[in-house]
Amino acid sequence: MGKNKTRWFEFVRWVTLIGALAWITTGNAQEAANRAAPPSADSVRNPESSSDSVRELREQIRDLQAAVAGLRSDWRRALVETAELRRELDQVRARTGLRDALLRDAVAESETTNPGAAAGPFQDSMPGVPQNAAPKDEKQGHGMGEHEASPEEEYQLLAGKVDDQYQTKVESASKYRLRLSGIVLMNLASNQGTVDSIDLPTLAYARPAGNSGGSFGATLRQSEIGFEAFGPIVAGARTRADLQLDLAGGFPSVPNGINSGLVRLRTGTLRMDWTNTSVVVGQDGIFFSPGSPTSFASLAVPALSYAGNLWSWVPQIRVEHRVTLGEDSSLLLQAGILDPVSGEAPPAGSYRSAGPGESSRQPAYGTRMAWTRNVFGAPLRVGVGGFYSRQDYGFNRTVDGWAGMTDIEVPLRHQLSLSGKLYRGKALGGLYGGIGRSVLFSGDPTLAATQVQALNSVGGWAQLKYRPANKWEFNAAFGVDNPYATDLKYFPYPHAYGDATLARNQASFVNMIYRPRSDLLFSAEYRHLTTYTITDGGNSASHLNLMMGVLF
Q1: Domain count within the chain
Q2: pTM of the model
Q3: Which regions in the chain score pLDDT beneath 70?
Q4: Residue 259 covered by a domain
């Protein structure tokens, strides 16, 4: 469009100049002829006529000079407009070149650092997906060993996403931006042995009489959806809220209800972030024991649950403060109060009754301090945390639950890293410690004469991660949860909220994760479970899970 306009101005300019020169040439020739011709008899006899001719000629010359001046003005104006159009064209080319450069840098970074980063609130819930805000462009072929996405395809995808920033994809009732993210995940599960849940096994049981000794099933109930809203700046703090849901909230009592998973609240938080301080309110993971092993076979329940991995999604209020210690190191301080959960299943119905934690009439307390330093381009992190919660079981039977824990993340090489957690505590059923039990009873918990014994336990897990290429990831992990035998044998016939005979539970797994594109993943995992009881010894089971997921 700019080139066509420039050519039109050039054409008009040359036509005008040629016409003006012809006009000037004709006028000058006429004037010269008049001067060279001898005066006629009429002019001699009538000098007024000659004077009128001269006056008329001068007026024509003045008109011609004015026309030439106008042509010069138009010519200058055309030159200015042409220069302006060229400047605008150069700016457009510069912006296009900058955008292309940024997109190519993004593709290069995606190819060399982390092609599978997830974005948005969903990113935090995805195992093995490092935090990278731009979740969000983790989208990309199909099949192991089939067509791999080329840099050109990645570039086209990122270019399309840049163009999409000028569109409103999710509309909210407020003027603030809303982002949608999630994963559609298909799991095929095969078990050998008897487990508590065929698609999310955590415990192994003895084989009942008549049991086939195995199972097979498929599910999409581990699919997730997340919403992230970006609010205004309040008192100098950026505000943000996120909500995460999945379909693992149980099953309706209808035919084939196992394929109609109910929506479940996972986490929902509101944040106020200053430069070095944050306030977080809502339901979130326990901040004093962060992180879980990497497994897409266990999205609805974090991997190694009941096997040394303390976790829970708990309503809480916490404060975080970051201290910069140097160019490559920092310190994170966290403290907060939490809903005092104790692990018991609530009674059926729509009304909430007080459990042992709520009956104590005080919140639970947590704190953590973590030191981070960059090593091999990845964070080396060491954290220590503490937890306290009082539980009241009625009739003046109170228990003090507590825990001390540590978490580590150590990059061994550019492609190899080690992570894990250790804990020691008491009455931790609400955090999935002690194999889900906080206390044991000598008899019926509703009777005043029944005694209560808090359950001590120790456990932890470790994971080795190997990433030989950007699209491949291999993980091996082991965890164990070991309640104290002296507590388990404190009563001759113990009772508990759960199986009182469980003595130790350990689990291990290996998995492979392949991401041909950042929005597509394939994974396979083998898991082995061994659960010991105080009466029957150990029971084992194995679990094979094949997964395909599409992120959005």
Answers
A1: 2
A2: 0.71
A3: 1-56, 92-169
A4: yes
